[in-house]
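User: Before I run my own analysis I want an independent prediction to cross-check against. Here's the chain; please return only the structure tokens and, at the end, one sentence I can use as a sanity check.
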Amino acid sequence: MPVGLTRDAGWEIGVSRTLHQPPQAVWEFITGPEGVALWLGAEGPLPAEKGAPYRTADGTEGEIRSYRPGGRIRLTYGPSTVQVTVTPGSSEGRAVLRFHQERLASAAEREERRTHWKGVMDRVAAGLG
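Assistant: Structure tokens:
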């Protein structure tokens, strides 16, 4: 099976980075208005209730599937699913931020989303200072 193709969730991609910020600061940023605009393209803050709808500036609609404060958001994004997690890094004052997207249609879409998420990660890191 090709890299990125799963039996159950189609094509998927994950991008992660260790940031020189405490996990709580990263979480507050990515769930606040500025962070939500950077990674999702929606006006924030993001709703925290399971089943709550959202709409991005480009018209993509979805809903919150799960929301674990301080740690994980899982939401639909059109026909795909996006999960965002924040975990403690290997040393104090660091956090690992991960974006994972599944149910992609093809290897080409997987590569497009890889480029997208790497750019998002760069913008989030810059936004955190």
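Sanity check: The beta strands are 11-19, 53-55, 61-68, 72-77, 80-88, 95-104.
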